[in-house]
Backbone:
């Protein structure tokens, strides 16, 4: 640990003395973490207009100007100071876009969001109608079943309203442990997002925002919230406030037959959040949507040759998918539907510059 800090101090010193290569190396060390911070903190109204890469480029220029002052008087760890520099840049971006009356971002429709809705609808239509031909490279392709309709539950709505109002973790329930089959209401205050309903899977996990699968069974809502807070503050937030409330308790009365086993898929490589993700039985998730669920591609992802590894006839079959064609050129016929236990590997480009 001390050797890492000494190495960073040495790079900071060289960069502050005007060594361009040292400045590039210093910024590259934290680029992915800073990009994720920008994605999380960027106002939802700007997500179709502002590219995190542009914010990073401006922050790099800010760093080059301010670094000598920090090097002369380092009053805090370098990464914490760097987060403040990037945070100040992001604040200026928000003021620029949201403070001008001629550019009311709240009234604009995110082009990216519209495209993804259209892609999703087309992908579902293709999956239902094209069982062969366009999906010929997909071993053992199976047409999706119709979606099931879920009716509203007044008690569940009350729990969601409660989770939406609470802003203090100290008042969370610490008496009853969560069980497999329970449904919880979860909200991360700093995300400025709506309350999510998450079910505790047969494995005891939930599919948590930013963290993928998190063990929930056996923990109280308060204990789960503090565990998630700790993990989020390690990589994503300077301060995280996690609100967890029991939405529906799993009992013998509402037990269908047995707790349904959830399928999963795994994604590795050049994405924002590697890990294992839940694949719901009624969900027709495509490979491009799986990448988006993992936070999108990292900066140096090889988008035109993404590997999909799938079990077929007892053997692992590797399928190469050009997601650049899918996500940038609208070639939806190449966007395969995910199946249980699929593995996605996103390699790094050979040349980054």
Residues:
């Amino acid at each position: 640990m001390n050797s890492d800090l000494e190495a960073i101090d040495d790079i900071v010193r060289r960069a502050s003395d005007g060594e361009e290569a040292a400045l590039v190396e210093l910024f590259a060390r934290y680029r992915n973490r800073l990009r994720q911070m920008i994605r999380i903190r960027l106002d939802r109204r700007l997500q179709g207009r502002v590219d995190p890469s542009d914010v990073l480029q401006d922050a790099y220029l800010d760093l080059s100007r301010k670094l000598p002052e920090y090097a002369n008087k380092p009053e805090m760890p370098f990464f914490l100071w760097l987060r403040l520099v990037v945070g100040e840049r992001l604040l200026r971006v928000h003021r620029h876009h949201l403070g001008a009356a001629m550019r009311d971002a709240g009234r604009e429709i995110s082009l990216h969001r519209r495209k993804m809705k259209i892609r999703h609808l087309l992908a579902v239509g293709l999956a239902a109608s094209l069982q062969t031909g366009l999906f010929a490279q997909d071993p053992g392709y199976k047409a999706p079943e119709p979606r099931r309709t879920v009716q509203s539950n007044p008690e569940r709505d009350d729990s969601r309203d409660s989770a939406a109002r609470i802003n203090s973790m100290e008042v969370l329930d610490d008496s009853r442990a969560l069980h497999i089959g329970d449904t919880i209401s979860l909200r991360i205050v700093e995300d400025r997002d709506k309350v999510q309903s998450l079910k505790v899977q047969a494995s005891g996990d939930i599919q948590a925002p930013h963290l993928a699968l998190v063990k929930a069974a056996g923990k109280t809502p308060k204990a789960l919230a503090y565990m998630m807070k700790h993990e989020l503050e390690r990589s994503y937030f300077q301060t995280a406030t996690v609100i967890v409330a029991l939405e529906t308790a799993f009992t013998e009365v509402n037990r269908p037959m047995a707790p349904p086993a959830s399928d999963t898929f795994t994604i590795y490589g050049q994405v924002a959040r590697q890990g294992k993700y839940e694949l719901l039985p009624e969900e027709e998730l495509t490979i491009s949507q799986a990448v988006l669920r993992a936070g999108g591609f990292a900066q140096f992802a090889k988008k035109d040759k993404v590997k999909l590894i799938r079990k077929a006839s007892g053997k692992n079959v590797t399928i190469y998918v050009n997601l650049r064609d899918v996500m940038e050129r609208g070639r939806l016929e190449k966007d395969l539907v995910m199946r249980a236990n699929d593995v996605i590997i996103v390699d790094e480009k050979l040349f980054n510059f």
In short: The mean pLDDT is 78.
